[in-house]
Amino acid sequence: MSWLSNPASETQVTHRQRVWLYVLATVIMLLLVIPTLIVIPMSFSDSQYLEFPPETWSTRWYETYINSAKWMRSTWVSVRVGVFTMLLATPIGIMAAYALFVSGHRYARSIFMFLLTPMIVPVILIAVGVFYFFGKVQLNNSLFGLVLAHSALAVPLVMIIITAALKSYDLDQERVARSLGATRAKAFFVITLPQIKFSVITASLLSFLTSFDEVIVSIFVSGGQTATLTKQMFSSLRDYIDPTIAAISTILVAITTVLLLLVQLASSREK
Amino acid sequence: MNQSAPNAEALRRQAKVEQWSLLSLALPAVALVFFVVVIPVGWLFFLSFVGKDGSASLEHYQKMLEYKSYFRTFRTTFQVSLFTTLICIAIGYPLAYFLAQLPQRWAGIFMLAVLLPFWTSLLVRTYAWLVLLQRKGILNEFAMNIGLWDSPVKLVHNMTGTLIGMAHIMLPFLVLPLYSAMKKIDKDMMQAASNLGARPSRAFLSIYMPLSVSGLVAGSLIVFILCLGFYVTPAVLGGGKVIMVSTQITAILENQFNWGAASALGVVLLVATFLLLWITTKLFRLDGALFGRG
Amino acid sequence: MNHEDNQVNSARSNNSGALPISIRNLTKRYGEIYALDAVDLNIESGEFLTLLGPSGSGKTTLLMAIAGFNRPDSGSIRFGDEEMILTPPHKREVGMVFQSYALFPHMSVAENIAFPLKLRGVTKQERMQRVNEALETVQLTDLGHREIDQLSGGQRQRVALARAFVFRPQILLMDEPLSALDKKLRERMQIELKQLHRQLGVTTVYVTHDQREALTMSDRIAVINEGRLVQVDQPEEIYNKPRTAFVADFIGESTMLSLRKQRDGSLTYNNTLIANISPDNRVNNWLLAMRPERLSLQTRMNASANADDIVFPCIVKEIVFQGESAYMLLDLGDGTEIGVRSGGFNDTDVRYESGSEVAVSLKKSDVLLVPDTDKNNVTHVR
Fold first, then answer.
1. What is the pLDDT of residues B128-156, one digit of tens each?
2. Nearest residue in C to B15, CA atom
3. Strands C21-30 and C33-43
4. SS3 for C269?
5. pTM of the full predicted structure?
6. How far apart are CA B290 and CA B288, in angstroms?
7. What CATH number labels B59-289?
8. C-alpha A90: how far from its chain's center?
9. ipTM of the complex in this document
10. What are chain A's domains?
11. Which end of chain B is more exposed for a tag (fewer CB within 10 A), N or C?
12. Least CB-CB distance to C71: which of B3, B6, B11?
């Protein structure tokens, strides 16, 4: 523990003097992480009340989940909507981010801000408004409608990630490529895109996650056969504390963790 | 002799064509956002001015000023947002500071403690608190075991549970911008202060803290604005007793199908959000940070 | 006064591998500011022309316009007989080296150099051959397989060069390519670039703010300031016969003395006669540009009795030892400072020190007069 006497900062405060900070920070981090992870062991509890630590271990809630038609159907809906959202939001987000970054048009900044509005407007309003509007154009309770709505929510995220990547990228390379004979499009695909590919991966994964975890719009816009997993979960939560949700939560946390690790991997690879 | 401006017209035309063809790449995104955000929310805006009988009227807004239920809703919403923000600041500042002081390698790992909840489904986290805070839940059991209280305290389906849940959800939104601002603080300044004879606490209070304020304010405003419009967590953890603007909007729609009233409430929320955002960006020029070429 | 009609005395002008560039009336505005103001310039086929000027003078803007990355507001840019101003950059067949080199980090050295060949559909066999030839020309033989991040600054510079000429363009553009290198390497590369240019025979337009670099490398220098060409001439002419105060000041380290024009046309400084010009000459403000190496230093007692020399009595202010020469700052007595370089110390056994009374002499034949026109009032080069 000799490192406790070492200086911890430019003002020569030692680690020992700061121990209270380290303890406090650790407690806070635990408080952040434990509630997220606590569902995992609890989901293996045999009891209806999800004790911790579980008195009897069992996988009954997982079985309930897998055997339930409604849970499986809604999961499949969420997966499909997530994938299609990723496939739609990522390319149009990249195109928009690139165009606005490169164009230097005087309205480029305003358009960029405009494209951030799905992140700024309170989601409840978007949900209610979309519910009303989709009602008029018969897009409620449809996969297509859900994908459109979720994609709009994901586009700002894609744009922020890709714009950040472009900012730290040397655009002179595209100019050189063009001077050597490549068209703008070719220069983008052959030179720029490979160098921002990790950001593209991050943007796609996070678009998927945005859609998969999306609650409010899904509550309003999906239903019945097209109910998403999140909508199903929400309905259950309102009625009673359905223990099956613990099992589903565990699966969701696992998926999120895997995706997050992939994203961290991707961002550390990219210079 | 020379023409006064050879090729000027052709160049101008070419420039225009190039500009527009580049911008057209952004068209799909613009169309999507228009379709999903502008039209629906715009429509709501108009609906708020349509009375029950179908004619243009301000009755919905008038009712907001008259009925007590609306006043309670606004007050609750404000309270929840304010307290959540304060709790997040109290907990988040030390955490952000700790993270900012870490060497790069460790920072990446500990950041996961912030990022994991951030990206985990909202429902999962809300549910976790629901389970943790219930009468037979861990928190009650633990507290009773160590003698903090004798019989199970109602920690959920009320304001307490709501605040706990909201704070947990909002904390990353404060920590991330604050961390970012703290990382930008030049360490040399603290060194200089120390060299000039300032005690560590003095250096911190006079130099570090003021420099971190911009990140703190940015994070706080983000949290506050998010809380204003938040739906899921208060709905679940509040147990129907914590009525915020979002919950009331849904209730109006579910019970009365009164689009006018719901829209009006929504418009108030929207205006409040944009007002706060406008103030923030004007104060701190945040708009450049996201888009500017630095 | 057609500066660019000074024919470059070169056998290269008939080189079929190079194109002449002719720029007419080129203007580019950013709001109120003229980045380029009706620029006219002829660049001979195969010539090495340097655009020299301070930051913001428009030299890079002009280069980018030639490359096609900058769309001027009006004007004409011809390569040979072909009007290029509306042609997009990827069709201009111009080789370019950027200040940052802009090598493609996700490709190897060979792949970088092969890139333009691949775009032109050159077969793999021939690509490899030409890449290797290019590597040899820049003295990087056998380094084709290396990754970009394994190269030193000087090596990267050469790869950027090789990539720019491998597809045999008839025009080569370079934007301060040596500015990132340290002094020794830079000086060596200057010579190598010159040799390369001679070897390739391609028309080269080179941008720099370093006047020494320009003087070393160029066939001609085009001095540019605030979007206008100030003087276009061979290096010796630019150095010895600057046409404006700006050029005299920018090139070399002159001291400029404001002269008074008397009614009879004589130009004086503090009542010392400097030169005579025609009394009808409309320019009333003249400057004497004194190059430090043209001034001779001696003790007052030995002040030259040669009637041909102009002598100024001074007091030594500061002596700066700079290795192979020493630079001295002298006070003319009215507060004006003159700079003198050590080649002219006549009495070597005399130790000069701060406060010494000395005299500085300038041969009449070394008198360099420059009209003190307002910087904006530059005659347009036609």
1. 888 888 877 777 877 788 877 777 777 88
2. C71
3. antiparallel
4. strand
5. 0.84
6. 6
7. 1.10.3720.10
8. 13
9. 0.88
10. 2-61 (no CATH), 69-270 (1.10.3720.10)
11. N
12. B11
